[in-house]
Specification:
Shape: globular
Number of strands: 16
Structural class: mainly beta
Distance between the termini: 34 Å
Order of helices and strands: EEEEEEEEEEEEEEEE
Helix content: under 10%
Number of helices: 0
Mean pLDDT: 77
Length: 179
């Protein structure tokens, strides 16, 4: 299976089982909420146990502290259809994202860090639709400290926290749990 995003045209394509199926979601149909001036900041792919569910997350921003930031959540239904959900917020200027269990409820969540803001943005999974597409809550925030330059999810069951956050101006790496 392959999922690709064209960051210029805002088209997402999925080729399933070596080309036997092709699905396209396009910004022309209103599914993708990329605003003028936004650039791709980070992209993370994710594979559930089966072929359905969360597939990838793309992070877009205009780079401004109180600007326009969007996260595109790409999921695949049981039938192979691509579904794109868009979430927006304005606080901070995002630099990286990770997919992991931020609130220790067993579901995958999306966590985004900003170098200029001391808070990470969390989009927690709030349920699952009948077609195996996850639903995500609106933005919530937890403190990480100013200067974050990167984030990575730890393996499930890690003892020291759920995410590593790195900081540009130091050799500091912190671990966090967002609950």
């Amino acid at each position: 299976d392959l999922i690709a995003i064209d960051t210029q045209s805002c088209e997402i394509a999925s080729i399933i089982n070596g080309g036997s199926s092709l699905s396209i979601a396009s910004g022309q149909n209103g599914a993708l909420d990329i605003q003028a001036g936004q650039q791709l900041v980070a992209w993370e792919s994710f594979q559930e146990r089966d072929a359905s569910g969360l597939q990838a997350v793309a992070l877009y921003s205009d780079g401004e502290y109180s600007g326009n930031h969007s996260v595109l959540i790409v999921s695949r239904t049981i039938q192979g259809e691509i579904i794109v959900e868009s979430k927006t917020w304005q606080e901070g200027a995002p630099v990286d994202l990770a997919i992991g269990d931020a609130n220790e409820d067993g579901d995958v969540d999306i966590v985004i860090v900003s170098e200029q803001n001391g808070d990470a943005v969390v989009f927690a999974q709030s349920g699952m639709q009948a077609n195996a597409v996850p639903q995500f809550a609106d933005a919530a925030f937890f403190e990480t400290g100013i200067g974050a330059s990167g984030i990575a999810a730890l393996p499930q069951g890690a003892l020291a926290g759920d995410f590593y956050v790195t900081f540009r101006d130091s050799r500091l790496i912190r671990t966090f749990t967002a609950n």
